[in-house]
Design a protein that fits this description.
Layout: H1 15-22, E1 30-31, H2 48-52, H3 57-71, E2 78-82, H4 85-91, E3 100-102, H5 110-117, E4 121-123, E5 130-134, H6 146-150, E6 158-162, E7 183-188, H7 189-192, E8 201-205, H8 207-217, H9 224-235, H10 237-257, E9 262-265, E10 269-273, H11 277-285, E11 289-290, E12 292-294, E13 297-304, H12 311-317
Parallel strand pairs: 1-11, 3-4, 3-5, 5-6, 6-7
Antiparallel strand pairs: 2-8, 7-8, 9-10, 10-13, 12-13
Helix pairs in contact: 3-9, 4-5
Length: about 325
C-alpha cells in the first residue's frame, strides 16, 4: 500500500459481529479467530491499593525490572510498560517526521494503518526512513534474523520489531537489536499469557524513543492490577516453560485434526490453505466456532487453539 487513506480495522475476535451474522449469544461461541493462549496465567491476589490508589513508581520499576530479566534486555536499552501494544503501535509513527515506511506483508495491519494515519507513505520494501517487521509474522509465522531485519537499512532509519508472538519461541527473539540506536521491540502481554483484557504491553529499545513514547502516554499509563499481574507472571519462569510445552502439543494436535494443509503460523495460531476460506469459515460458524479469514486471500483460514474443555466442539464440527 502506498499512501492513501488509513486502512480499515481488520482483526480477529469479532464475536459480537459473528452473533449478528450467524446468531447466538457471546457465550455460545468458541472464538478461534485470535492467537490468544486459551489457558491464561492465573491472576495473583490483589490488595485494595492495586484498585484504589494511583500506581506508584516503585510498582512500575518492579514490573520493568521483571521484564528486563525475563527478556534478557541489553543493559543500554530502556523499557516502557504501556496499556497494550496497540497503544504503542499507534504512537510510534509520530516519533519522527513522516517519510517512507517499509512494512513487508501480508502482516498485522495495524502497523500500516498507524503510519498512514500519521501521514507516512507505506510500501512493502525499498529505501525507507522506517521499517516494521512482525516476528514471528502474523498470520504466516515468518521468522526474521538479525541479518534479514537489518538488510538494506540505513543507520538513521527507525526499526520496529513486533514480537507479540515471540514468547512461544524465546530462542528466536531479536532482543539483542535493542542495543541498536533507532530500534524498538514491542512485546504483548495478552498473547502468550492469555490476558488480553488486562491491556499490558512493552516497548524496549532506544532510550530516546522510549522516553518520547512515555511522554505521549502520560502519567500512570498502566493500572495497578496490570502492574501486579505482569510482575508476577514475568517472574514465573516455570509457568512459561510448562506453557510452551503445552502449546507445542496443542499446535500439533490441531494440525492433525484439521483436514487442510498447514502453510504457516506459530504455536498460538495455525494457518491453513483451504479450497475456499469463506466456505470453511461459514461451515465452522454453523457450529458457533469463529475462524479468521483475510481480505487478501481466498484460501487462508487461521485458527487459534481451543481451550482444554473445547476440543470436542472443533472435532465435531470438522
Amino acid at each position: 500500500m502506498d499512501g492513501g487513506a488509513a486502512q480499515a480495522a481488520d482483526h480477529g475476535g469479532g464475536v459480537d459481529a459473528a452473533c449478528a451474522r450467524w446468531g447466538g449469544a457471546r457465550g455460545d461461541w468458541l472464538d478461534l479467530s485470535t492467537g490468544i493462549n486459551p489457558v491464561p496465567y492465573p491472576l495473583p491476589g490483589f490488595c485494595a491499593a492495586d484498585w484504589s490508589a494511583l500506581p506508584d513508581s516503585a510498582a512500575t520499576t518492579a514490573l520493568e525490572g521483571a521484564a528486563r530479566a525475563f527478556w534478557r534486555v541489553p543493559v543500554g536499552a530502556a523499557i516502557l510498560a504501556a496499556p497494550g501494544a496497540s497503544a504503542l503501535i499507534a504512537g510510534i509513527p509520530a516519533l519522527q517526521e513522516a517519510g517512507r515506511a517499509a512494512i513487508p506483508g501480508p502482516t498485522y495491519n495495524e502497523h500500516a494503518r498507524a503510519f498512514v494515519t500519521a501521514g507516512w507513505q507505506v510500501g512493502q520494501a525499498g529505501g525507507a526512513e522506517a521499517r516494521v517487521i512482525v516476528h514471528p509474522n502474523n498470520p504466516d509465522g515468518r521468522v526474521w534474523t538479525v541479518e534479514t531485519a537489518l538488510a538494506g537499512l540505513t543507520p538513521a532509519a527507525l526499526l520496529v520489531i513486533d514480537e507479540s508472538f515471540c514468547d512461544v519461541m524465546p530462542e528466536a527473539s531479536l532482543i539483542a537489536l535493542t542495543a541498536r540506536p533507532r530500534t524498538l521491540i514491542l512485546k504483548s502481554f495478552g498473547k502468550f499469557w492469555g490476558l488480553a483484557g488486562l491491556r499490558l504491553g512493552f516497548a524496549i529499545g532506544d532510550p530516546a524513543l522510549v522516553a518520547a513514547l512515555a511522554r505521549r502516554l502520560g502519567p500512570w499509563p498502566v493500572s495497578g492490577p496490570a502492574l501486579a499481574t505482569g510482575r508476577a507472571a514475568l517472574a514465573d519462569v516455570g509457568w512459561a516453560e510448562a506453557t510452551r510445552a503445552r502449546l507445542d502439543a496443542d499446535a500439533a494436535r490441531l494440525d492433525a485434526l484439521v483436514p487442510w494443509p498447514v502453510v504457516g503460523g506459530s504455536r498460538l495460531f495455525r494457518l491453513y490453505a483451504t479450497p475456499d476460506a469463506t466456505a470453511a469459515q461459514e461451515a465452522l460458524a454453523r457450529h458457533k466456532i469463529l475462524g479468521r479469514i483475510f481480505p487478501y486471500s481466498v484460501e487462508w483460514l487461521r485458527l487459534g487453539l481451543p481451550g482444554p474443555d473445547h476440543w470436542h466442539r472443533l472435532e465435531d464440527a470438522l
